[in-house]
Amino acid sequence: MNQLPILVAAANLSKSPSNVRKSSDAVADAQLEANIAAKGIRQNLIGVPVARKKGHYRIAAGGRRLDAVHRLIEKGVFGPDYQVPVLVLRDAKDAIATSLEENFFKLSMNPADTCRAFQDIVETEGKTPAEIAKRFGLTERFVLGRLRLADLAPCIFDALRDGEISLEIATAYASRPDAVRQAQIFETLAQSYYRNNLNEIRRQLAQGSYSGNDPKALLVGRECYVAAGGRIDSDLFTDDASEMWIDGDLLDQLATDRLAQAAQAIREREGFGDVRIVPTTHITYSATWDLKPIEGEQPPLTPEQEQRLADIEVELEAFENPVETDETEEEVEARYDRLNAEYEAIRQRAPILTEEQKASALAYVVIGSDGQPRVHEQLYHVPAEQADDAQDSTGDDEGDADADCAPAQVAPAQPKISQRLADELAEMKAELLRVHIASDPRFALDLATFFMADAATRTYGSAERATDLRANAPASPLHGYESDTPAAGQWLKLQGDLDRCWINHADVRTRYDAFCALSQEARAAWFSWAIARTVQAVPAGRTGSVFLDHLGVKFGIDVTAWWRPTARNYFDRVSKAMILQAFETVGGLELSSRYAASKKHDLALSAERLFSGDLIVEAEVKERALQWLPDAMRFVPVGEAEASLTGDGDADCGVGRVSVDGDAAAEALAEAPDEDSGEDRVAQAA
């Protein structure tokens, strides 16, 4: 193919059926069109002559360029006689192969090369991102993004060029313009599991910075922050709310100063004895656990509040007897929680304080979610040592004649570290503890038991344990439910037998040491109790019920030895047809027919006697009645339970006993667990 291309009017050119490209991309086509409009056709098309139409050609390679030229002619950008360079193939047999060669062997540009090319155009030609975008048919946002990638830390940019990281990962690193921090995080994550995790990369880059809608940012204000030298990372990807304020330490200091000014004004206006600032939106429990709250006089309920409380009580009572609705279980629970929260909010109204109470009150000032300083709703008594210090500084000291003449000795202010550094040092200390705890299973078991038991026996002080580990008893949807079953009685006995000599120590360190001083059996009993109280009550058929059934089978629980159906707990609350069906199950149709004419209440009482063994019936009927259980009370699938009832199933199914002996529980905790079955462990405990 040594001939030179010729210029042909675009009107005389059409795409050849031999062109192998049958699909395209609208965005890429628009970009190509914009580039041709700016610079014209710089690469010749390849075509074959049209038979019996001199000067007309079908384009086998370059169809996208030809389509772009035709569109530009229609838009009036090019004239109707616009000419295009065409390399003419003399042999039409090569048309398909030529078209495939041109499309198949094209290599897309490396994103790094595109970034550098845009950067060179800006620096050498002085073009703006908007001009570059127009020239190449791109959005200005796309060009700005590529220019930002060009400013990546060199190690990250080289990794992008060499194909070691994807364009998405490079974009994540470019979310913050600090090249030094980019390089640090890139090196930190290089051998980490999270090296390709976009969210983790962005999270680590964002540490120490704040978004524009953060309460601290709203408190300080953009102008004040910028005037103090603060930097803001803002581009077309963000708005005022989502832009990042990079200098977090500076913003922390400005917010503290602004909050201190507001606190002073609040103290003068309200007359509080002392005001402390907490530059966050809430106060942690650890900050106030040793302070005594001030209890003001509760304002009387308004008629509207009283009516609303009555309405909520009616709605809550309705949960005890649920009806069929279109709501899901999650929606019902959410509605229940909202009603409870509203009920408590009305009952716990803000108290009214006297001027004397205010004068002795300690108030905390925090940052509201809208960025405005606000007084925390709970006031506390000024700590005694602080009040004594204030009294000593103003009172007379007869024992020191020179006290009135000597100037007050003010202790020099201690230098403070930044909050960021304090958090990092705390994390390092925690790392040391975690390593040592993880290396000592026995220590970890005692510590976990203490965490759970201490949380379960105290209503406050959660922050002082410095852990989120809990063994909370699940909230029951049943209001006013009180059980009198043997199992409930046994649970109360278990709780009463726990050694509580360690509970009443005020200091968590003393409580922990006292707990560790308990016997191994006593600690084991606390552990078993703490775990057992977390088990939820799950109705049959709901998520979790299958696993609870499995645990019951592992223990070999004989439900009939612990629970029998009575009129009160079962038969009065089911239909007459269900009672008669139970009669038929254990005594056949003859027994069911014998009681069919009974009234519902009388039938329920008869059923209670039958299934407790007090009704005179045949021996085999009595035996089956004593083994009968409603499906909801069985720890085995329905079919297997019926098989065991008729003698066709496993003889051990659902039969057994549970030991609550403390020595056995301690032994189970002290020794390494074996790969034995649940039945084996129950047998050992027995």
How does this model look, in words?
The protein has 686 residues and is α/β, with parallel strands linked by helices. 50% of the residues lie in helices and 7% in strands. The strands form three sheets. Strands 1-5-3-4-2 form a five-stranded mixed sheet. A hairpin with a 5-residue loop joins strand 10 and strand 11 (373-375). It starts with 5 loop residues before the first strand and ends with a helix. 19% of the residues are buried. Mean pLDDT is 76; it is low at 393-414 and 641-686.
Q: Would you spell out the secondary-structure blueprint of this structure?
A:
Layout: E1 6-9, E2 13-15, H1 26-39, E3 45-49, E4 57-61, H2 63-74, E5 83-88, H3 95-104, H4 111-125, H5 129-136, H6 140-150, H7 154-161, H8 167-173, H9 179-189, H10 198-206, E6 210-211, H11 215-220, H12 222-227, E7 232-233, E8 244-245, H13 248-270, E9 274-277, H14 303-318, H15 329-347, H16 355-359, E10 361-367, E11 373-375, E12 380-381, H17 384-394, H18 419-438, H19 441-457, H20 486-497, H21 508-516, H22 520-532, H23 545-555, H24 559-562, H25 576-594, H26 600-612, H27 619-627, H28 638-645, H29 662-670, H30 678-685
Parallel strand pairs: 2-4, 3-5, 9-10
Antiparallel strand pairs: 1-5, 3-4, 6-8, 7-8, 10-11, 10-12
Helix pairs in contact: 1-2, 4-6, 5-6, 8-10, 14-15, 19-21, 19-22, 22-29, 23-30
